[in-house]
Design goal:
Shape: elongated
Number of domains: 2
Strand content: 15-25%
Helix content: 40-55%
Distance between the termini: 75 Å
Order of helices and strands: EEEHEEEEHEHEHHHHHH
Strand order of the largest sheet: 4-5-6-3-7
Radius of gyration: 24 Å
Largest sheet: 5 strands, mixed
């Protein structure tokens, strides 16, 4: 049986309302912005829209006008398939459904989002989410934490810029390095140590990681353009891998 949900007709679905997250809000804002461009209209001319996020299985609805006793707002739901006739909507009246975040985006402001962990922070910063002001997790939010996070971001960018680290042995090396660096960073921050101590710890991490397979992979590529793209690098891990490969060449000669 079809049901009406925020001006939309749907069937064979169940919906559980959850908090609007920044990526839900920015997702629907992009839908609205696309409509503005397509139809040459203003933000205020868009009466309704929806955005589906495949990553978390949610759907977000935007309603600009009061309809059926429902005020303008934003609603996000987890959605599940169900047999026909068992459709249902589980709402939570305590969730904030204000459209103020959309208005902020329309005014050119960014939405603040505190990363859940340093991995999420690196991912967001690398992908340059234009509508989000990504902030470090609370225990990283000090001068040393920010400086270490910047060093980690340089490592992350360098890895992502080179195809050799996208799969197989190269990807395993990248994952091992980032895990080791982040663990070292946490230990440094836990004892209120310095950035210099972290940089020293980076070299200790690299010495413990199996590097031969990665160095041989670099040699197997046999492409000078890879070396040009990689070096010089702000990444200690990338330079370490390529310098090891270079030492193999010298050993062969």
């Amino acid at each position: 049986m079809a049901i009406r949900l925020h001006t939309f007709i749907t069937s064979q679905k169940r919906y559980i309302q959850i908090e609007n997250q920044p990526h839900h809000i920015t997702g629907i804002f992009k839908i609205i912005a696309r409509s503005k461009s397509l139809y040459s209209c203003e933000f205020s001319d868009i009466d309704s829209a929806y955005y589906e996020c495949e990553d978390d299985g949610t759907i977000t609805f935007y309603q600009a006008k009061k309809i059926d006793n429902a005020n303008p707002g934003l609603w996000t739901y987890l959605q599940y398939d169900c047999p026909e006739g068992e459709e249902e909507v589980f709402r939570d009246s305590f969730i904030d459904t204000s459209i103020n975040p959309l208005i902020k985006l329309s005014d050119g402001q960014k939405l603040p989002q505190v990363a859940l962990d340093i991995y999420e922070y690196l991912k967001y910063k690398y992908n340059h989410y234009e509508y989000l002001d990504i902030q470090l997790p609370a225990h990283w939010h000090n001068q040393t934490g920010r400086e270490i996070a910047n060093l980690l971001l340089e490592e992350f960018k360098a890895f992502k810029s080179l195809p050799i680290f996208a799969e197989g042995v190269g990807k395993e090396y990248m994952q091992a390095v980032l895990h080791g660096f982040i663990q070292a960073a946490r230990e440094i921050l836990a004892v209120n140590s310095t950035v210099q101590d972290f940089e020293a710890a980076q070299f200790d991490v690299l010495k413990k990681i199996q590097i031969d397979d990665t160095a041989n992979l670099i040699l197997d590529y046999n492409d000078y353009r890879l070396w040009q793209a990689a070096l010089p690098s702000k990444s200690k891990a990338v330079e370490y891998a390529f310098n090891t490969a270079l030492s193999f060449i010298c050993r062969i000669k």
